[in-house]
Amino acid sequence: MTRNCGRLKFVSAFFFFPMRSLLGRIGLRWDISGISNAYYREDFNRIPVAEKAVILPHCLIDEKCQARFSKAEGVLCVKCKCCPCGEISILCEEQGWQFYISPSTNFTKRLVQRKGIRAAVGAACDFEIEKGIRSTRITLQGVLLKRKKVIPQVLLTARYDCLKNDIDWDLLRKIILNGAGGV
Ligand code: SF4
């Protein structure tokens, strides 16, 4: 896909987003996170690793999670192996990425400002993605979080559920090791 073709697809996907339920009735459906991930991929991969972060939602942690919460850093994973977040946190440390578990979208917005994050891999369910599209300024150069531009890659959670949720952990590992779109 050429850059211009990707841009057209990206702009159309967001332009028609408010009409998606209407268009869905006549069989027109599209994967908004897949289209935006593909569009932002090259720019995402160009950002130096130290300015990249994995920011996971708290719905992925285990119910018995013993981690403490820090107002500055979010959920402080102690790598107990009860959920895959600990292993991802270790992989991020090894590869030079920042790693956080965030309790909310507002917390994430403050985090990217404080930590100088320029590109982030996050995870969200359809409901949160829709909420984010309505409340966040999305530009061709990235997503504006409290005036800070961040280039995203979004993984879909398996369910609309705030407890013991799941994502494609293999895909996340591949992004950390080989970049977005890498194998
Ligand atoms: S691995 Fe980390 S986030 Fe997961 S349950 Fe253990 S302490 Fe909590």
Tell me about this structure:
The longest helix has 15 residues, at 32-46. The chain is built from seven helices and eight strands, in the order H-H-H-E-E-E-H-E-H-E-H-E-E-E-H. Helix 1 (3-15) packs across helix 3 (32-46) and helix 4 (85-95) runs parallel beside helix 7 (169-178). The two termini are 18 Å apart. The strands form two sheets. It has a six-stranded mixed β-sheet with strand order 4-1-5-8-7-6, with helices on both faces. It has a two-stranded antiparallel ribbon with strand order 2-3. Strand 6 (137-139) and strand 7 (142-145) form a beta hairpin. With 183 residues, the protein is α/β, with parallel strands linked by helices. The model has no long low-confidence stretch (mean pLDDT 91). The protein has one domain (48-178). Iron/sulfur cluster binds at residues 61-62, 65-67, 77-83, 85-86, 101.
The overall number of domains is: 1
User: What is the helix content?
Assistant: 40-55%
* Side-by-side strand order of the widest sheet: 4-1-5-8-7-6
Question: How much of the sequence is in beta strands?
Answer: 15-25%
Number of strands: 8
Shape assignment: globular
Mean pLDDT score: 91
Structural category is alpha/beta
Query: Which cofactor or ligand species appear?
Result: iron/sulfur cluster
- Biggest pleated-sheet summary: 6 strands, mixed
Gyration radius (Cα, Å) is: 16 Å
